[in-house]
Amino acid sequence: MAQPFPYTYYACDCYDGNNTSSTKRASQLLQEAEEEERTFDPRSPRANYSLYPLEHLLYCEDCQQVRCPRCIIEETLNWYCPSCLFEVPSSVVKSDGNRCTRSCFSCPLCTSNLQTYSLDQTGESAPPFILECQYCRWSSLEIGIEFEKGQGIAAQLARLGNGGKHIPTNKERDKERERRREVEMRKSRDLLSPSTESTNTDTERDDRPPSHDDLFSNLTAFYKSQVDTQTPSNPFSSHDINFSSPSAYSRIMNLYSTTGSKKNKRSKPSAMREAASSLEGLTIHDPISDAAAIERIKREGWGVTLSPAQKHAQINPNVRFTDEIRPLATLLCTKRSKRCRSCRQILTKPESKITSTRYKIKLLALNHIPRLSIRALNASPPTPVASRTAETFDYNALKPGIPAHFLLHLSNPLFDSIKVTLATPSTTPGKVHSRVTILCPQFDVGANTDIWDDALSSSLSPIKRGSVSEGPAQIEAGKIWDRGRNWTSVAVEIVPGFTNSQGSGSEEQELEEDEDVLEIPIFVRIEYETDAGADDRGLGDSRGSKGEKERREEAFWTVVGVGRIKGA
Amino acid sequence: MSSSGERKVSASLGRSVRGTTPRLADLASTPEAPRTPTLGRSVSSLFGSPGGSFRTEDEYVVIELGSRYVRGGFPGESTPRCTLSYDPDNQRRVGDYRQWDPEYGQKRRKPKRGQDWGQEFELYRMDLSQVDLGVVEDKFERIMREVYNTYFVLDTKPRRILLALPPKMPHALMSTLLDVLFGGFLAPSITLMSSPVLSTVAAGLRSALVVDIGWAETLVTAVCEYREVHEQRTVRAGKLLSEEMAKVLNAALDEHAGYQEFDDISFKEAEEVLSRVGWCKSKPRSNRRTLYFPARTSPILEEFEDAVETPEPTVTIPLSKVSPPSEIAIPFATLAKPADNALFATETALNEFDDHELPLHHLIYRALLSLPMDVRRLCMSRIIITGGVAALPGLKSRILAELEALVHTKGWDPVRNYGTASARHDHILRQQKEAVELRRQEGDDKISESLDPDNPLPAGLRGHEEDTIDAKLAHVALRNGPPPASVVGGIVRGVETLGAWAGASLVAQQRIRGIVEIDRERYLQHGLQGASKEKEVSVVPQRQSMGPGVARGAGERASWTLGVWA
């Protein structure tokens, strides 16, 4: 599709294998049975999820099957920040979350990296510091944030709200909540007993609405207090025994206390109540903030608002205007090992060093599955670079209705020679029907021996490269086109279909994106004999069948993208 | 040991098993070996010291699932770690990088044939006849993989999942989603919670009328004491709204020079315009004529709002995908029209609506009307408006104002039309209202009247006698009971919520176990069919079960149910 033509995708067949029976009904089962015989349709909506380039696939040697990202299990080995390459221990990931806790930030508008700059005029790095985007020139000054130190930006930012306000930590929040509750209690007592003087000295109340985090922590505290008052009344509620809390201890002590009558005396527990004030997390809808937002959009227009992508990238996605955004700490990356989902064998395992890109274990499909590729068969032999520009085949403009010849090239990474059978539907599925004929669907491919063997053997017994050198190509049905040490190529004849089939209204017939792309599903079946027990350790050994040959076969669908058919 | 031979057969495949010493669990399976009678481990942990097994699987991840977005995060955090949308750009083949092509960003993609507005951006729809569940599974699997691998970055320990789902979902769809979570992400158990209840939790309430203005439909759920008691739906929601916005933009483009035919605005552009500069008039205007206002409170505000500003304010919208890229200026008032048309349908008379397309305020009114009176009293003063569209500025105020007006005109009378008697009914209603007004206004004068001993006031018009005992009781209730602010009822009042995800995070943090808890093993055995048919399973352990029944253990339940989803 968007890969340059020509390309090849391999289908991993896990997508219809992992359905548990619970979702299947009888009709679906029937459908499944039919599917066995159906050809693979690269245009079906599910195909997008089962097709992979060969480089993306792994291979499980125990199951002898291709493994795609869906049929593996990933295990995180270590965490690191991709920006400062600092390895983050797992305990920190657990406590501080999935973002870098040092000074790595990305721009909230354009997602490129932010850099720390000093605003000092003298040229030395002295406070104040700001973060600035290298790409779009957004800086933290726009949200009114300056830093005192050049290091540890994340810790400073956690305490700085937009506009330089102080963000309370959780402990401070708790303290503040307690203080305000005290004040309110006193007030309500005053209300109840009007005799006492109302000593309301608390005037420093700020009137701005509590932030999302404030509300959440208020709610948390409220529910916690409510649940705590509930639980002691029910000592046998074993479902949430939390032995670290004092309430649980009192409950346990209750169990062992001899005064059993005490329990009966306890009054029926009152139901958990609702939150009653904003201290407990209740917010009554206030039309003023709505009106202010409308007024602001009216006044300042498009420029001050955030796009959906920018909003969703924010930690708190409930923001609307550009002065509410925060710099985004860089998301941590992980190094992961991958296991086969069915047999749990490790398929890949990277080295644990962050800066190393090497792998300890790496079982790639590249080394186990023949690579299939296609290219146009030019009538003229490949010539030096000079004339290539004129001669190159334009894969983006296949001419409809005119037969064209292509070469299917199959190279074998295995150390045994393989027998290949190719199959393809005679017309491609989809809206544009192209006719496809593989001229030689059955052939052998040599083993992947030492590269020098090729050089040596070719001098001794020259392989027929004749067809190219002998001038005009002779394409014969049933004969391979060319062959090398571990590769074979065969010719394919393709008649691209017409993009606009004649008749009927133009609107119905209008092609959608990528419908003019000529993609051929090809079923590949390979058969080979290999040393039994060479790669499955253990099983073969006990029978003592060393050296015995074992027949293996593998089959899979591939999709070959040939090119784009030119509209007539 | 007698059983060793037998065990070897089963273990012969794996070499590593051979060397291990037999464990206690193995002993239990051999009847010949001396052993203590099997005791459920949970019994000992109930009475004895906390077992190590007790807290192992207690960690949760919290996932909220909608038809357009998935949110994921950890309990106790106020915001989700990620909010991901089902974008067709994420649904391409692996290795297809065209979305990063600078040219690609300029082009406008045509929607696929036969697909509804924005269908590519949905995960599922409730009408399963149009949905290929296989594709749903693929999409969901891929997006969950991104959630886990990019945002959760967990260690290998399996975590339980708290899944916030809309109440009512086709079972086939549910099992598709659960399959992915159990199969692909190895969750030991999944707790389902319905999103209206969680929105209620996140507002700090126990009862509420949750108006979830989602993508495909608006769902009005009455929640009473954390239970869904009533539910109404309408299709007037996000999808209709963005379609209307596209119409407005297309009309504006029409006037703009250089516009080509068939070059309609794309879904993404309409969505962006809507979320950036869309708004909603916060005062109802159209049905003012029909509103009945008592003479003294006739609103003056509205005349003020009607005044046209000069020059008319406009908003300039850059459209980069039009060729050539251009900016269009749209009057600010026009940007409020989609909300008017899609959600309130101000132009249409009420009798023309079908049951599934009632305007929001009528839907909410009907939902309230069908509630029992005491539940209605609680719910009407706890209206929670949430969902993706609720962020549209002005929308919440508008809904509440419209509702207030409806209640004001109609009262809580289920009869919509009295036919020939309507004149008389109106008359009675008016009389009642005016009498109430009169009494309230002239309350002060009455005291002097009643003091007159010669012609005492009829009992009905007299004020209540003050009883000192009553006052004392009220006083005690005020001191010991819930604060008066939490028992408000009978007035139309909106309450803000932090959203269903935050509610789920709160619930998981408090370690509250849900009614619907699906165990992995049981699900894999029977699927959704394994659920018991009872809707309610008592979460609180029964006293009687201290006998042999407790052997099942505290952490396990004998059966599981699907609750509201059953």
Automatic annotation (TrEMBL), chain A:
Compositional bias (Basic and acidic residues): 169-190, 202-215, 534-553
Pfam families linked: Dynactin_p62
Entry keyword annotation includes Lipid biosynthesis: no
Superkingdom per UniProt: Eukaryota
GO cellular component: dynactin complex; stress fiber
Subcellular location as annotated: Cytoplasm, Cytoskeleton, Microtubule organizing center, Centrosome; Cytoplasm, Cytoskeleton, Stress fiber; Cytoplasm, Myofibril
Keyword annotations from UniProtKB, A to Z: Acetylation, Coiled coil, Cytoplasm, Cytoskeleton, Isopeptide bond, Phosphoprotein, Ubl conjugation
Region Disordered, annotated ranges: 161-216, 533-553
Family: Belongs to the dynactin subunit 4 family.
Oligomeric form and interacting partners: Subunit of dynactin, a multiprotein complex part of a tripartite complex with dynein and a adapter, such as BICDL1, BICD2 or HOOK3. The dynactin complex is built around ACTR1A/ACTB filament and consists of an actin-related filament composed of a shoulder domain, a pointed end and a barbed end. Its length is defined by its flexible shoulder domain. The soulder is composed of 2 DCTN1 subunits, 4 DCTN2 and 2 DCTN3. The 4 DCNT2 (via N-terminus) bind the ACTR1A filament and act as molecular rulers to determine the length. The pointed end is important for binding dynein-dynactin cargo adapters.
Name of the protein this chain belongs to: Dynactin subunit 4
Species annotation: Didymosphaeria variabile
Automatic annotation (TrEMBL), chain B:
UniProt xrefs under InterPro entries: Actin, ATPase_NBD
SUPFAM superfamilies: Actin-like ATPase domain
Residue ranges of the region described as Disordered: 1-44, 78-113, 439-458
Superkingdom, natural source: Eukaryota
Pfam families (UniProt xref): Actin
Biased composition (Basic and acidic residues): 89-106, 439-449
Similarity-based family: Belongs to the actin family.
Protein name: Actin-like ATPase domain-containing protein
Source organism per UniProt: Didymosphaeria variabile
